[in-house]
Design a protein that fits this description.
This protein is mainly beta. It contains two helices and 23 strands. The chain is elongated.
Length: about 350
């Protein structure tokens, strides 16, 4: 295939055709596989100082109006290279201090597990591989980002709950993905329903979101399932990354004998873009094409005095544009992509 064209200010030439693990513009900044000798210290931070086993000091979030669990470190269990968030029916739980979120109720009926990564992230690709718990009313597992800042900021990679008898009968077959604006109004972008030939959510799947300035793209098992671009209400401040197994108001219809139930996490990974956004680059020889070290540039030009030919997969990212101004061949079997993105620095 030979092409001769100029591509400037494109939203995307070929989309997100490479996973960040194989796309040189991205670097892995978190690779949590829960391996080795892992345990929670007395302050509920893990022994690698990567994450904590709670969201708030009291162990309660959203209050008794909406959720009915107390998070404890004993319910976030390191097990055989995974992290298990275990929900237990434990009526009249009172082992939390009063104040903050928990002023609604004097006791709770469930214990469960949650993690929050200590490091804050601003933009990136966030992925979890996990198995969701068996179907029961009230189950509300999630993987999400939240700021806790002056401007309310939240992105839900996935949330999963059972509201109806039909959903309960079919087991867990659906989940949502959303973001919240500065007025704390949720915008649901993904309402995914498993097809009959897809494995149930109680088996391992990957859930991910690519969060960049003014855009979010949601993925399920590596496939794009929802996207928003040029949206000014997409969060733009650092956020904390969380995974939890909540119990919501639908627990009133749950089968208490099914507990304990578990959400099992195989890994959590975060990738961020490598940025050199003030630099212009011209690739004028095949040697320069083959040795190019990807990162986000200001402008990239492919322009040779002789025809150029790609010898390896190549992904170009720039803030202002990519120009192809000479004969340029992408052989069959090679992957070439262009993305125009805003700088994340």
């Amino acid at each position: 295939m030979k092409t001769l064209f100029i591509a400037t200010m494109l939203a995307s030439l070929s989309g997100f055709c490479q996973h960040p693990s194989t796309n040189g513009n991205w670097e892995k900044v978190l690779n949590e596989e829960f391996s080795g000798n892992r345990y929670w210290k007395n302050n509920r931070i893990d022994n690698t100082n990567t994450m904590r086993a709670y969201f708030s000091e009291c162990g309660v979030t959203h209050g008794g109006k909406y959720e009915h669990q107390v998070y404890t470190r004993e319910n976030a269990i390191f097990k055989n290279g995974t992290l298990v968030l275990k929900a237990e029916y434990n009526p009249n739980t009172t082992n939390f201090w009063t104040g903050g979120y928990d002023t609604y109720y004097s006791s709770y009926d469930y214990l469960s597990g949650a993690i929050e990564f200590v490091r804050q992230f601003k933009y990136g690709y966030f992925e979890i591989r996990c198995k969701l718990p068996k179907a029961n009313y009230g189950n509300f597992p999630a993987f999400w980002l939240w700021s806790g800042g002056k401007r309310y900021s939240e992105i839900d990679v996935f949330e999963h709950t059972i509201w109806t008898g039909e959903e309960h009968k079919n087991g867990y077959k659906s989940f949502t993905g959303s973001y919240y604006d500065s007025n704390v109004h949720g915008h649901t972008v993904v309402a995914y329903q498993l097809s009959d030939n897809e494995r149930p959510l109680t088996e391992y799947h990957t859930y991910a979101v690519k969060w960049l300035p003014k855009s979010c793209v949601w993925y399920f098992d590596g496939r794009i399932i929802g996207e928003v671009y040029e949206e000014t209400e997409i969060p733009d401040e650092p956020m904390l990354l969380k995974a939890n197994y909540a119990i919501d108001n639908y627990h009133e219809n749950s089968d208490k004998s099914k507990f304990p139930l578990e959400m099992t996490i195989d890994y959590v990974r975060v990738y961020q873009l490598k940025c050199d956004c003030s630099k212009n680059v011209t690739l004028s020889t095949n040697a320069q094409l083959s040795s190019y070290q990807p990162s986000v540039k200001k402008h990239i030009t492919i322009k040779g005095s002789e025809p150029l030919k790609l010898s390896k997969d190549l992904s170009l990212m720039a803030t202002d544009g990519v120009s192809i101004e000479s004969e340029f061949e992408v052989p069959i079997g090679k992957e070439f992509s262009i993305d125009i993105v805003q700088c994340t620095e």
